[in-house]
Amino acid sequence: MRCLSCWFACAVLAQDPVTKPVVPPATAPAAVAAPAATFRPLWNGRDLQGWHGQREMSPYQLAALPKDQAERLRAEDAASAAAHWWVENGELVNDGHGAFLTTDAAFGDAEFVLEYKTVALADSGIYLRGCPQVQIWDTTAAGGKWSLGADKGSGALWNNQQYERFPSRCADRPFGEWNQLEIRQIGSLVWVRLNGVVTVDGVVMENYWDRKRPLPASGPLQLQTHGGEIRFRNLQVRE
Asked: What is the rounded CA–CA span in Å between residue 38 and residue 21?
């Protein structure tokens, strides 16, 4: 595994210029030391241990539920994940339906790498700290979402409103091929590289659930999906 910290520092030199947002001083660290830890698997490659199902729901709303109601929702989401997620040839597979697959662990500042492969009309994303999302979708005209920006490509913070929400350029591979995502998150800042192309360069990720609040300091990573089959493999994390 090559060092992500190195390419995040210099990758943009080899790419087209990216316009950066004006970052509030409180969110921009003065200096960022390279993490001392090494990458470790985020998934065991065999089953769903370490993950659980969770419907799309505000973490604030979820935390405020009475205990009995929260337990009922967890049971329903567990059944949904079991019905719509499975393991096949060392790949996590989802049929385009059901609860989002969610890590039991919460992450703060971290780097993630993973590969995904999807199909026409699929729409997915990587939720960071339980917030949407690093976008994955059908970027073809036939996908029907060019009016929403799908023509610009995957790999950016599509749910942003104030800060940049589209990638620097489209780096998606054709359906049936594996795509590689490399993500780094420090504070509220996010960097993303999709298939070797920098698609997010130190952009503030907004708190989708409550835009008046800062991004949560930590939270789970979630694999969101709807609209078509998607497969994931080689998921790793370095905190």
From this structure: 30
